[in-house]
Amino acid sequence: MRKYEDLKRAEEERRLFRLRLVALVVMTVVLLMLVSGCNLTDKLQALDGKAPSVSQNLPDIPTGGLNTVQPQVPKVKVTVYFKNKEASNLVPVPVEVDKAPGIAREAVEALCSGPDQDVDAAASMPEGVQVRSIKLKSDGTCVVDLDPPAASVKLTPKGEALAVYALVDTLTEFRNVKQVQILVGGLVKDTLAGHIPIDEPLLRNMTFVKRNG
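User: That's the sequence. What structure does it adopt?
Assistant: Structure tokens below.
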């Protein structure tokens, strides 16, 4: 009987020792978490896969660091050809665009947008005409593809001539452009509005241009 009580007492001591050991481990973990400055609740949530995202309350950091300054694209002046107020001739007008790849497209888009209000000129391209693409071939042919609605514009023969050569003369201002092929919706058309042939590349033509002064 005494031997049984000794065994029971030894087993009870071992159980208490294990409980003290577990409690010591838990206290040590808690102490380390507090010393490291971590929030106990966040740690427990992180272990459970429910840690809150601290990034959701922080602003985005700009690419390249906090002190990154976006470089400004330099500007350059190009010559585009608008109509004069009487719609009898084209007049060269300097326009400022970004000096970057695609400068020819920017020049044509400026032409299609028309002049600023303080410029003594009028839009030479029909309203709503937009550029789909511009490509320069190795032989110096600049291929300009206009949106399909450009083929349905209504123009007089003079108005069509001014529109066509405003486009051609604007692009041939660039030294590497020798001639201009006008497409509409990716296709070669006989004319833009029924009068001026555009089925072949066109050379620079200053017949319609009136120089200032």
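The helical segments are 2-35, 40-47, 103-113, 157-171.
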